[in-house]
Amino acid sequence: MNRTKKAICEVFWQLLEEKPYNKITVQDIVNRCQVNRNTFYYHFQDIPALTEYSIKAFSEDIIEKNYYFESPVDCILPLAQELITRKRAFIHIYHSACGETLIQYFNKVCYDIVASYVNNTPQNVNVSEEDKKFYIHYHKCIWAGIILDWISSGASYDLLEFCRKVCHSFEGFGNIAFFKLVMDQYAPTTMQ
């Protein structure tokens, strides 16, 4: 990403922390960036395009920085920490016309995070691809649901603590369930 495009995105995040999405104008962005409107339109068609680009860049950055995960806590806490640093911005986007875009990217990020964990867990060697897909989809729904619940509640609870508790239960019960998939798949069947 070039410097000007990055600066526009950073200013956009700053403005989202200060006021609702529908109150942000291209003029607000260019004034704070100290660029002209043509520069903005060279990089982005409009504010919704900037929004999608910014959310996508945020999502890709989270995944890139945390590509290899050794535990469920390693998977989700970096995302939770980043969300907290921009919580007002995400609340404003969620309640805007671009809320659906935000939901789509959170679903993708959560899917990629869980898939990275499941696919890099040594215990999954004997798990069928169908069971892995189920497990990934199931946990993606949990994490995306937690994030969207937190945002829709106005970030009214401690996301990090909540995620730690979910991760702790995942390490216990979740691993038991995961290992049960392996054992059920390869256990000899008995006829009654």
Question: Can you lay out the helices and strands and say which pair or pack?
Answer:
Layout: H1 3-18, H2 26-33, H3 37-43, H4 47-65, H5 72-85, H6 87-94, H7 99-119, H8 129-152, H9 159-186
Q: How would you portray this structure in words?
A:
It contains nine helices and no strands. It is mainly α and 192 residues long. It has a single domain, classed as Tetracycline Repressor, domain 2. Helix 1 (3-18) packs across helix 2 (26-33) and helix 1 (3-18) packs across helix 6 (87-94). The protein is elongated. It starts with a helix and ends in a 6-residue tail after the last helix. Mean pLDDT is 83; it is low at 185-192.
The CATH architecture would be Orthogonal Bundle
Main sheet?
A: none
Distance, first to last CA: 64 Å
- CATH secondary-structure class: Mainly Alpha
The helix fraction, in percent, is: over 70%
**What shape does the CA trace take?**
elongated
Uncertain residue ranges: 185-192
Summed up, the helix count is 9
Rg, rounded, reads 20 Å
* Beta-strand content: under 5%
CATH superfamily: Tetracycline Repressor, domain 2
Number of domains: 1
CATH-defined topology: Tetracycline Repressor, domain 2
What value does the average pLDDT take?
83
Q: In brief, what are we looking at here?
A:
By secondary structure, the protein is mainly α. Helix content is 76%, strand content 0%. Mean pLDDT is 83; it is low at 185-192.
Q: Which labels suit this protein?
A:
9 helices, disordered C terminus, single chain, Tetracycline Repressor, domain 2
